[in-house]
Design brief:
Layout lengths: L2 E4 L14 H36 L9 H13 L1 H15 L3 H30 L12 H22 L1 H4 L1 H10 L4 H30 L3 H14 L4 H21 L3 H19 L2 H6 L2 H23 L8 E4 L1
Antiparallel strand pairs: 1-2
Helix pairs in contact: 1-2, 1-3, 1-4, 1-8, 4-8, 5-10, 5-11, 5-13, 8-9, 8-10, 8-11, 9-10, 10-11
């Protein structure tokens, strides 16, 4: 009897090439985008309808049927000038609800992504993949410190660089996102959106790329896409660095729970920093901000060393032939 050793790990296993690699890699992004477009279109229709009814001055309590309401909206929309003006007003009003709209999109997208993630897991097992070892729960303390330090440190570096002041789109985006109430921000920005984005970019895109190659190309590719889709320069840079970190956490901890936890923590911390005006407090004293930034860099570096020591490689499997 001849004894052989096989070690199937992500990126080295005998996986069958997908029929359409582009759709396999970009499919999760396109699904999220499609659902987002649908939610946004519905929101535009609702806001335009309410804007038309509000401008018409009609007492809705006096309207006897929905057909009358539809007729008012239809006749107003036929007027090109009035329609364009109302559309602009509706779009401006809708900007105030950017956060809940994004939250609804994430809420509707997450179940679809979970099904895809589950299917990928089954597919990987059938292909012979053995995922990296899952780190013990107590080791997630390093994720907490690393994420908090990176989030605060990157925000400080962006503030010090002055990039934010040069990006009007960033300012308008932040104003829209943080205009919602604190509970809505916590639920949408702090929970729903991070879970959705991690399933798209780490749980599906990164993992699929990783199964076909090494860590670095997969992490760079998914991180560049993650940053690029944030549109403005500030969020692109911020998204790339955090995205790469989340890929690294996924690799070392062997579970998508690690980047999900980190992303949730990062977003909630950003929400609280904005709500408490902590960035303004730090920016008021350059020395204060500099000291805090150096401390964050030191803490993040220390946590990186600890996480680097995590043994993520799966054990070899002995198969008797």
């Amino acid at each position: 009897m001849e004894q052989q050793q096989y070690q199937y790990t992500e990126g080295t296993g005998p996986v069958r090439k997908p029929e359409n690699r582009f759709l396999r890699i970009w499919g999760p992004v396109l699904i999220k985008w499609g659902i987002g477009m649908g939610v946004s279109f519905l929101a535009v229709m609702i806001f335009e309808s309410f804007t038309i009814l509000k401008k018409s001055g009609i007492d809705l309590h006096a309207v006897q049927s929905m057909a009358q309401v539809q007729d008012i909206i239809y006749r107003t929309m036929l007027d090109t000038n009035a329609s364009a003006e109302l559309a602009a007003q509706a779009a401006e009003e809708m900007m105030k609800y950017t956060t809940p709209i994004e939250g609804i999109t994430a809420f509707l997208t997450i179940p679809v992504l979970l099904v895809m993630f589950h299917r990928d897991t089954i597919r990987g097992k059938l292909a012979g993949f053995i995922p990296n070892n899952k780190a013990a729960l107590w080791k997630y303390g390093a994720v907490f410190v690393l994420t908090a330090a990176m989030t605060l440190g990157l925000n400080n570096l962006i503030e010090i660089s002055g990039i934010m002041a040069a990006s009007e789109s960033y300012e308008s985006t932040m104003d829209s996102l943080y205009s919602a109430s604190l509970p809505v921000q916590i639920v949408c920005l702090g929970l729903l959106i991070p879970v959705c984005e991690e399933l798209v970019f780490r749980g599906l895109m990164f993992r699929r790329l990783r199964q076909g190659g090494s860590f670095l190309p997969a992490a760079l590719y998914s991180s560049v896409v993650f940053g690029f889709l944030h549109v403005n320069l500030v969020q692109m840079m911020y998204g790339f660095f955090l995205g790469f970190t989340f890929c690294y956490l996924y690799e070392k901890y062997g579970s998508v729970k690690a980047p999900v936890f980190a992303h949730i923590l990062s977003n909630i911390l950003s929400v609280l920093l904005t709500e408490l005006k902590a960035m303004d407090w730090m920016a008021a004293e350059p020395l204060r901000m500099g000291v805090i930034t150096v401390f964050c860099a030191s803490a993040a570096s220390a946590m990186y060393v600890l996480i680097q020591r995590i043994e993520e490689k799966p054990a070899k499997i002995d198969i008797t032939v």
